[in-house]
Amino acid sequence: MPFIVDLTSGNVEKEHHPGEIGGSVLGLRLMAARTPAGLDPYDPRALLYVAAGALGGTAAPGLAKAVFLAKSPLTGVAGESHALGPFAAGLRGAGVKALAVTGRAARPSYLLVQDGQVSLHDASELRGLGTAATTDALRGRHGRGAHVAAIGPAGENLVRYASVVTDHAYAAGRYGLGAVFGAKNLKAVVCVGEAPAKGAAEVADPGAVAGLAAYYRDSLATNPLAAIQAGMPGFAGWVGDPPAPGYAAVRNFSVTGAHGLRVPSAADYDGRAVATTGACPGCPNDCLKVYAPPGLAERRTGGLGQEAFLSLGWNLGIDDLDTVLAANARCNDLGLDPVSLGGTLAFAMECAERGLLPGGPAFGDPAALPGLIDDVAGRTGELGDLLADGAARAAARLGPAAAPYAMTVKGAELPCFDPRVQPGIGLGYAIAPGGPRYDALEHDLDFDPVAGLAYSFGEARRIGAEPAPVAELDAERGRRTARLLRLWSGLDALNLCVFASSPTRPLTLDHLSALVTAVLGREFTLEDLLAAGQARLDAMRAYAIREGGGPDELPARMHEAPVTAGPHEGAVLDRASFEVARAAFYEELGWR
């Protein structure tokens, strides 16, 4: 039952959708039904959807996510981003499961969600503030327990990859949802109250949920990936030996051999932890930790995702940890997606190196990074304005010679895990109808018969994803990838956390079914989970086709420039094999 909010008129009404779980599938249906084809993402009629749904915000492992959804100003198709942390619980505690927002406020404003009611309030004095100062000001007005989803200057300035940041550190980063907030003059959504009678996250079978939580807690010591997530410095704290050449992006995916860049040691994180526990209510894994260098003016915004070190570090030719941590915190405070920012800066650096962007930035220059971030967020100067639109649009403005260096799919910058080494990831990047995401499906290397995570093979087999050598690119790779994408799409549709779930994390397929059943009080099966995943993918694809979304293709570099050293030497995505795998992917999902 979403609240439909018209920012232009201030009107708020409830709308009933019986049988809907209320995650992204409902949001996609509302977008398709309530907006005309071809609508500009910044048009006041565009729809913005924010939801915890029936599961998000429940005090249980893997149920902390909130979804943010709108037509993306970066890709022109459905942009879906998820925020971990406590915001979903705050939305549910305030008595609301979902908001569908249209219109444009006459002045900078915020939505207050309190005790099952939604109202619009002036935020003119908050314009120009970062997400941390905005959150502080709104908590000063509505209480320290308020939960806040806010944008910073990047969203106000319509940077096409602006993010929404919840509760200081937990970003809904990809696809420019912060710019949609900005176009609507919506500075924040504020959630106040704990009202079980009005929709907070009660569960049908508390005993079953408690049992699953105890199992999950015990699994943290035995599941390898969960143990890394829970430990220090955590899943996003890259430490130890450098990944093999070709595994991760270096200098805009242009260097696939020796590069001389280092990975931090665990000791490098000493003194940099801001908050390392308690991010997600009900989940003991603490996989999203907050780090920032000592002495940084605003450290609370340093929520560290797994991609930050690669996107703001190696992909820019930088390996200094403090530079990366400071850049990540600054991105969150300004409201910028680190992945798209890193990909756009890397594009500009390669263009400058090749003489296509005179005076542009250079790889391996940590001192220049803070100024570049501020210029993009403020659209300051010609370069800042150029890069604020993302690599694909910047390439179009620079001319045809720059196009090969925009590492984008459907207009969105690639995540920094190289698809040449993991072709299933490449298929997921190319075909996922909302654009490329590194967490859209589990990585190929995990299912390699020799190097993979053998404990996960049984779970993968249950959905038809047999182990296979990581380098194989054939029709079966296409089918396997589609099945994995469908599974994780089901998790996204229900706001279940992929970092807690099958096939490689502690919540197995049976645990997930039992968890949903225990929360909702009605039987939920693996078939239901996969059906939800298929429904979400079908809805996203239908919307992409309606809006004329970009082709299901990767940058030419992935097909033409092989890895040049190390255990993956020679890895490249053969075009003919990729087309065979893509056709099998479509067939598995019933797409033509």
Automatic annotation (TrEMBL):
<keyword id="KW-0408">Iron</keyword>
<keyword id="KW-0411">Iron-sulfur</keyword>
<comment type="similarity">
    <text>Belongs to the AOR/FOR family.</text>
</comment>
<dbReference type="InterPro" id="IPR051919">
    <property type="entry name" value="W-dependent_AOR"/>
</dbReference>
<keyword id="KW-0004">4Fe-4S</keyword>
<dbReference type="Pfam" id="PF01314">
    <property type="entry name" value="AFOR_C"/>
</dbReference>
<feature type="domain" description="Aldehyde ferredoxin oxidoreductase N-terminal">
    <location>
        <begin position="1"/>
        <end position="195"/>
    </location>
</feature>
<keyword id="KW-0560">Oxidoreductase</keyword>
<dbReference type="InterPro" id="IPR013984">
    <property type="entry name" value="Ald_Fedxn_OxRdtase_dom2"/>
</dbReference>
<dbReference type="InterPro" id="IPR013983">
    <property type="entry name" value="Ald_Fedxn_OxRdtase_N"/>
</dbReference>
<dbReference type="Pfam" id="PF02730">
    <property type="entry name" value="AFOR_N"/>
</dbReference>
<keyword id="KW-0479">Metal-binding</keyword>
<dbReference type="GO" id="GO:0033726">
    <property type="term" value="F:aldehyde ferredoxin oxidoreductase activity"/>
</dbReference>
<protein>
    <submittedName>
        <fullName>Aldehyde:ferredoxin oxidoreductase</fullName>
        <ecNumber>1.2.7.5</ecNumber>
    </submittedName>
</protein>
<dbReference type="InterPro" id="IPR036021">
    <property type="entry name" value="Tungsten_al_ferr_oxy-like_C"/>
</dbReference>
<dbReference type="InterPro" id="IPR001203">
    <property type="entry name" value="OxRdtase_Ald_Fedxn_C"/>
</dbReference>
<dbReference type="InterPro" id="IPR036503">
    <property type="entry name" value="Ald_Fedxn_OxRdtase_N_sf"/>
</dbReference>
<dbReference type="InterPro" id="IPR013985">
    <property type="entry name" value="Ald_Fedxn_OxRdtase_dom3"/>
</dbReference>
